[in-house]
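Hi, does anyone understand the following?
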Amino acid sequence: MKPLVRHERADRDVQEAVEYYLQNAPEVTLAFIDSLEQTYLHIQRRPGAGSPRYAHELNLPGLRFWRCKRFPYLVFYVETADQISIWRVLHGSRDIPAWLGDEA
């Protein structure tokens, strides 16, 4: 498996989500973290399985995403020859092209 490299912005996205759950639904915070870890593992095992939908829309070749189980978060990543870069972890109800446009 290729190593995952999380961008600083992706880590901030996760921190914001964890803080939200801690304040609004503390009983599911650990389940969210577990779901995110399982999503990362799935991406490592099958990086080509993620949807390239926004890659076309934003003209970012190789960009894919995979959704966390039980939670409305999408993990955006790009696979290269030697690693998988996690770009963002965004709530699915956001304006994804606008949020990702800054990363391009």
About this structure: The chain is about 45% helix and 20% strand. The beta strands are 4-6, 63-67, 73-79, 84-91. The first helix runs from residue 8 to 24. The helical segments are 8-24, 29-45, 53-58, 96-101.
